[in-house]
Specification:
Blueprint (H helix, E strand, L loop, with lengths): L2 H10 L11 E6 L4 H5 L5 E4 L2 E9 L13 E4 L2 H4 L21 H8 L9 H6 L19 H40 L1 H13 L4 H42 L7 H32 L1
Parallel strand pairs: 1-3
Antiparallel strand pairs: 1-4, 2-3
Helix pairs in contact: 6-9, 8-9
């Protein structure tokens, strides 16, 4: 890839431009093959009879599953690229606002094709290879980010909704058991809080103690679940980045799920705390 094209794409992604020496090339690769790239440190690449030396490796998220190379690509100075025969070409553009819903159809019509169909020539040009860790099949030659995001979110929601529902059922069951256990121990609570009242604690202090007791009862399993779930999410997110090269906030999805489950837990805690105090006042 030409250095100027590479820098233009980097700017679209919000990264700074980089430079190369007159006889240098850069490796743009997925994170998981950085170790293999280190073996190229002392190797040279000949282009048009001229030797170019290794200048470093970049691992930014660069869609290297067949679009911008498969696993890796070499970035060379523009004058070196002029000596080479293009294998395939891509046209990328950014515009303000949301993409029109019929943009894909219009682009196909401008290319003399219908949406979803690919001519024999188009099929050949789409054969750009895929990464060693990717199984990807598509007959499209035009990709629009807004459309792809919508389709991906739809597919993810089909999987996420039943999993969230199952998780919610288990959570409600566990919280119900905690609430029943906390409220059913009436005799022990009557004796404990009666002793505290005889020792001179005010009603406000007794309510605060009851609040802390209930909070501790709910927080211990919730914090344990957060630590375990966070570790699993971090592991999955790290490997997703390693094998796909897609850059995303690893904690974003886990944070949203934890917030939703936390709201449910907070509702159970509030109801239990109010009922616990009511029973405590009746029994003292």
């Amino acid at each position: 890839m030409k250095l100027s094209d590479y820098n233009a794409l980097r700017e679209m992604l919000g990264y700074e431009k980089i430079g190369l020496g007159e006889r240098e090339y850069l490796l743009q690769a997925k994170e998981r093959i950085v170790r293999a790239a280190e073996e190229m440190t002392g190797q040279t690449v000949k282009i048009g009879g001229v030797s170019y030396k290794y200048a470093g490796c970049e691992t930014i998220g660069f869609e290297q599953n067949g679009h911008n190379g498969a696993d890796y690509l070499l970035v060379v100075p523009d004058d070196a690229a002029e000596e080479m025969t293009p294998y395939y070409s891509l046209c990328m553009a950014m515009f303000e606002g949301k993409a029109p819903e019929d943009l894909e159809e219009k682009l196909y019509e401008a290319d003399g094709l219908s949406a979803g169909s690919v001519s024999a020539q188009g099929q050949d040009s789409a054969d750009r290879g895929v990464g060693t860790d990717t199984f990807y099949s598509s007959n499209s030659t035009i990709f629009i980010r807004d459309t792809e995001i919508y389709q991906m979110r739809f597919m993810m929601s089909v999987v996420m909704f039943p999993l969230f529902y199952i998780g919610l059922v288990f959570l409600c069951t566990a919280l119900t058991v905690l609430a029943v256990q906390q409220l059913s121990d009436s005799a022990a609570n009557r004796r404990r809080y009666g002793i505290l009242q005889n020792m001179g604690l005010t009603e406000r202090e007794l309510s605060r103690t009851a609040f802390r007791q209930t909070a501790l009862y709910y927080l211990c399993p919730f914090i344990g679940a957060l630590l375990l779930g966070g570790e699993i999410s971090l592991y999955i997110g790290r490997n997703f980045l390693l094998y796909s090269g897609v850059m995303d906030a690893m904690w974003s999805y886990f944070g949203k799920a934890a917030l939703l489950f936390g709201i449910v837990c907070l509702l159970y805690f509030g109801i239990t705390c109010v009922e616990f105090n009511r029973r405590r006042k009746e029994q003292i």
